[in-house]
């Protein structure tokens, strides 16, 4: 048996989802399957090409639905799981019993662990620490912004390493380890810690850059990182610097895309009146109600800036 296991790349929940699914698959479906891991990133334009579904079984976890009849397994919890209404119809008509969608879950990892236990009798205690942390990290369940920004726990350090990773082979190794070892064992190994060290100093630089670039008006914090060369940051930094902000809107440029990110302050005492995934979907993006993003072509700077401004105006109205 061959399996293509696709997962949300550069994401702790994506990697954890892949690890839990991989272990489930080996324990309950096919112990000898040859499994290829494939990280998927959100991109403007067409998302899936046919080669992704070339194995005997093809699985997607923590990522958008593909209306391919060659898709065998699918698990997702994102609000914006369907690229089109046709994709959603395709999913609703599915009778395979192997495609699962529940946006009430904070992490896809927990969704997979729950469904595979209930429907396939899959139990694996060494994974429980991983499932616990995926829920905290993907669900932003930290007690305060300081805990989230200090990155004190090994799981948080591993998450930062995964988010910054640019070597697919390294992440694939981590996923395979996470399916057979405890999270603590994997997260505290030297290979992970040595990758975290340079990120820790970059993290401190990012805090400084965001402090300088950001300004808050009517509860909405804005910063533009396109001129800084910065390609990613801990998404809680804005609320650590500006606890008074209810929302953040930011602009960032990477070689592959121009990205508008929109977030809700998880420690805000205000009532959230906007669904950020729904707002971003209007521009071809998506995500969760509390954190969402839009990817534009790298050259579409003006288009991205216009979208960011429109979104800020909407959020400032309260
Ligand atoms: Mn997720």
Key words describing this protein structure:
2 domains; binds manganese (II) ion; Diaminopimelate Epimerase, Chain A, domain 1; inorganic pyrophosphatase (n-terminal core); 318 residues; 42% helix; five-stranded parallel sheet; 18% strand; globular; alpha/beta; six-stranded mixed sheet
Question: Outline of this structure?
Answer:
Helix content is 42%, strand content 18%.
Structure description:
- With 318 residues, this protein is an alpha/beta fold.
- The chain has two domains: 2-139, inorganic pyrophosphatase (n-terminal core), CATH 3.90.1640; 215-316, Roll (Diaminopimelate Epimerase, Chain A, domain 1), CATH 3.10.310.30.
- The chain has helices spanning 12-29, 85-92, 108-120, 128-138, 145-150, 154-164, 168-178, 183-187, 190-213, 237-241, 276-281, 301-316; strands at 2-8, 34-40, 57-61, 73-76, 99-101, 215-217, 220-224, 247-253, 258-264, 286-287, 291-296.
- Strands 6-7-8-9-11-10 form a six-stranded mixed β-sheet, sandwiched between helices. Strands 2-1-3-4-5 form a five-stranded parallel β-sheet, covered by helices on one side.
- A hairpin with a 2-residue loop joins strand 6 and strand 7.
- Helix 1 packs parallel to helix 3 (108-120), helix 1 crosses helix 7 and helix 6 packs across helix 9.
- The protein is globular.
- The relative contact order is 0.11.
- It binds manganese (II) ion.
- Manganese (II) ion is lined by residues 13, 62, 77, 107-108, 138.
